[in-house]
Each structure stands twice: as C-alpha cells, then as structure tokens.
Fold these 2 entries.
Entry 1:
Amino acid sequence: MSRGKFITFEGGEGVGKTTQIRHLSKRLNAEGIETIHSREPGGSCGAEAVRHVLLSGMAQEIGMSPAGEAILFAAARADHVDTTIRPALKDKIWVLCDRFMDSTRVYQGEADNVEPKLIDSLEKLAIDGMVPDLTFILDLRADIGLERANKRRAEGESADRFERETVAVHTKRRQAFLKLAQRDPKRCKIIDASQTEEEIAYDIWSIVKDELLSDKQNKSKSKSKTKG
Ligand code: TYD
C-alpha cells in the first residue's frame, strides 16, 4: 500500500459518527492497519484553537458573517491537513475523520447561503488535493438526531452554536448532505443511521472491505499502474 487511506464521516447532529469511527478503527486494527481518529473543526493544535472561536458562538457574537466563519473553518482545515492528515497518510496510517470538507459545503454553503464560488475556492486552498478516499454520510431524521445529541451532552454543558439552530435548519442540512451524496456517489456512501449500532457498523465495514481492501481494488490499482 503506497499510503494510508483517508475516510471521512459526515451527517447531522447526533447521528453516531464518533461511535462508528471507533468500530471501524477496531476492525482495521484487527487487520493490522494503524489508524488515527481525528475531527473537524480541530485535529491539530492550530485548528483546535480555531474550533473554540467557532463553536462557542464567539465568532457569531462578534458579528462575524457566515462567510467569515467559512474562512475560519478553512483555515483550521488547512492546518489539520498539513500537520496531521498528510503526514499520517504518508506513514501508511489510515485517517478516520469526524467531519471534513462536506460539512462546510452543507453547513456554510447550502444552509447558511455562503456563495458557492467562495466555498469552492476555500475548499481548494484548504484541502490542497486531499480528497477523502471514502465518505460515509450517516443519515437520520433531524429531530431524532437532535434528541440524541441533547441526551448525550453532559449535564451543565450547553449546545454549541450549530446545535442551537431549529429543526427546520437541521432538516435543510440533512437534505443538503443527501444531495451532495447523489452528486458524488463513488466517494459518498449514504448509511441509514436509524439502524442499530451493529447494523451500521456492518454496513460501513462491508463498504470499506469492498472499496479499499479487496483484491479487486488492489488488482485494478496495479492494472492502472502498468497502463502507465
Ligand atoms: P462537534 O461538537 O464536533 O459535533 P458533531 O458531533 O455534530 O460533529 O461540532 C462541530 C460543529 O461544527 C457541527 O455542528 C458542525 C459544524 N461544522 C460546520 O459548520 N462546518 C464545518 O466545516 C465543520 C467541520 C463543522
């Protein structure tokens, strides 16, 4: 294997991304594949600092526009890609990331109406070619996801700036994720997140095996190599 694989997990609030990353990580480790579990915004020192500004609501309170927030998400992403993701993949470590570029497309682009041109330019700058090998979109009704996210939150902890929005906004985001998956079905796989934890983990593992670990995949890679 020339480099590790990059897999991202996307979806609305409370869809179970973190739990599923843990399941996949265990399965991969059992196959002898080293993994890291990262997240956005965050995943590197610089990006974690920006995370606080974005999620505490500080950016919004000081009157920053959705475009300004998109720029901050991109700055955090650029640092994450450079200092965490790219070096890990180079060391043949697989990176499993909780949210990535598709969250910006959906949260800032589709739901917050930031200009598509700006979203595209920021994405190019931030990821610098680092497109995920696979993206799982965990799909769940927005009201169910929000209820789960509310339950999961520790006592005394308040909802973050994005969780505080209405069910209608969350539903718009869900539709945007589905639309995005339809546009890029090769990379983006929709997973029914209303199933049990084990069923979801099974679906994800089947796809990873088929798309990234199977002989078929390795053979087609070596064929394309010999074709030059
Ligand atoms: P987080 O606490 O990581 O929650 P979750 O479990 O929902 O992933 O919060 C991240 C929040 O930031 C989430 O509400 C989505 C939002 N977000 C964006 O708006 N744009 C982005 O590009 C990213 C990565 C996240």
Note: The chain has ten helices and five strands.
Entry 2:
Amino acid sequence: MNILAVESSCDETAVAIVADGRKVLADCIASQVALHRVYGGVVPEIASRQHMEAIYALAEQALEQAALRREDIDAVSVTYAPGLIGAVLVGVNFAKAAALALGKPLIPVHHIRGHIAANYLAFPELVPPFLCLIVSGGHTLIVDVQDYTKMEILGTTLDDAAGECFDKVARVLGMPYPGGAALDSAASQGDEKKYSLPRAKPGENPLDMSFSGLKTAALNLIHHAEQIGEPLDVNSLCAGFSAAVSDMLCPRVQQALRNTGRKRLAIAGGVAANSRIRRDMTSMAEKMGVSLYMPPLSLCGDNGAMIGAQAFYEFQAGHTAGMELNAYATKSILGERL
Ligand code: KG4
Ligand code: ZN
C-alpha cells in the first residue's frame, strides 16, 4: 500500500511516499529554518505561507522520486495535530484536496505517533510492544507502545519540553535557531562538572519530568556571568546542561522499563539526536539487558516518512477521516482534546 504523507506542523514542509508502513519510496523536505533564524524562532505566519508555497511542488517531487504516477497512490495521510495551527491547516487542506482528487482514503496522523513510527522505518524488525521516549521541541513523553495504535502515557514533562529548553539556552548563548544541535556539539568540548545545575524531582508521578527550573538556572548563570563581567565557559555550561537534561530522562526511562518489564526501548523526536542522551541511553540499556532502538539523525527530526509509516497502521486500525477533518494545535497522543 503506497501512502502519500504530508507533514507541515512546524518549520519543515515534508512530503513522502511510504510503502506498507516500512519502506520509504520518496522523502522530500523543504526546510524553512534559514527564514526563521533571523527572528530567533519560528514565526507562525511565515511558516504557514512558506508551507503553502512549497507543498504542491514537493508532492510532485515525491512522485517523481518514487517513480510513481498519481494513480499508484493508495491513500493520503497528514499530520492533523499538534502544531502551529496555521501550519498544520495547510497540510490538512492539501491532503484533503489530494485525497478527494485521487478518490483515495484520508488518514489523519498525530505528529508524535509519527515520531515513534520513525523507528519502524529504521528498524524493520521492531514491532510493538515496546517503550518509547519521545523528546522533541514541543513534547517530552515516556510512552508504553502496546500496539501500533494503542499507547499509554507513563510520564510527561510538567512544564517545558526538553527541546524548548535546549533552544532557549542556546539562543541566550548566541547560537543560531534551532540551537539544540549547536549546543550539543559545544558540549563535547566542555567539562560537565564545572557548573552545578539543578535536578528537579517534580510531581507525584515519579515518571513525570520538569525542565523549567533547569532552564531558568542555566539562564541565570549566563546572565550573572555577564553582569559581573566574568568570562563564561560556554562549552562547559553546554556539557553541564546536556548532562542535567539526560539525568532527568534516563532514570525515569529506566524506572518505566522496570515497571512495565518491557525489553525493548526506542527513542524518538528531534532531541533524540542529542549525543549525550544517546550515550546515556546506550549504557543504561546495556546494563539492563534491553534492546535499544535509536533512529538515525535524519529520522529523529520532523519528516514526512514517519507520518506515512504510522498512517499504514492507523489505516489498518480503521482510523480514516472524511472531508470534515480539522487541524488541532493541541491534542493528546491518545487522540483526546486537551
Ligand atoms: O522533533 P522536532 O524536529 O520538532 C518538533 O516536533 O518539535 O524537534 C526539534 C527540536 C529542536 O528543539 C532542536 O533544537 C532539537 O530538536 N534538537 C536537538 C538536537 N538536534 C535537534 N536538541 C539537542 N541536541 C541535538 N543534537
Ligand atoms: Zn516533531
């Protein structure tokens, strides 16, 4: 089954074609990052306009890359939530029009379910159940993936997402948006013990997480150094910050593995590209005798293929939509309104 997949929830317009949820036939992305960089973050209106300008040509490009004709497409899928509402709407309207014109089913896909499904593309042998840590610009979740479309949220951030904090700290350090990757590479040159940063223990659920205190502490440290004219060891601050984020994630994932007895762990989302997190997850998984699935960096960030992968399983579960499909800025991974 060839699924045309559309992703436009943030600052990447992406169209892919995926066969049977596992094989990428085309994967086309138009990144807007350079346009937003001058503003230090995503400007929603610019994002929507750029999606509109890019999406049609990307779909044509995807067909060409896959060497398929329009008639060879069996269904159209799209990220319908969550994201910048204007941006998501562009993808949803395009996908609705494409499904209508082709006379094929329309499959709505939750963006975060798509991130999890990036693992199905990278690891053909991976099948649920497994545990998944999702760390992206907007979400931080520990999810028990019981089946392709049946999930339970075991833990979540109570405030900021990990990626948001990486980007904010990087921005204050003068790194270009989105700063997560730049902060990560600076960290590799630093001494993580040089600055002491807090590790919060939030809430009643031991698997919940919190990053806002850490973010504030890092920002205060930077501003304080500036105010007293003390030179800041940026690399060491980045190393300490990355270690603190990983220390928030790792023990909770470990506990979730113990609680559920799952023997497979996957990670997903843009922040899953972080080298410190990948290193800590690797040693934790080794110690626990758990199989670890970490998608290549190209599949960690937003892409269309991950939406096409999840769409195959949503279709099998009967999750299709009609022309009434709407876009949502927020929606739980379980499909509930927030
Ligand atoms: O999943 P994603 O592409 O978009 C959302 O759905 O949010 O995640 C983007 C986030 C950004 O915050 C970006 O700075 C972060 O992923 N990121 C990283 C790294 N690469 C990307 N954060 C830390 N270390 C990295 N190597
Ligand atoms: Zn994403």
Note: The two ends are 32 Å apart (CA to CA).
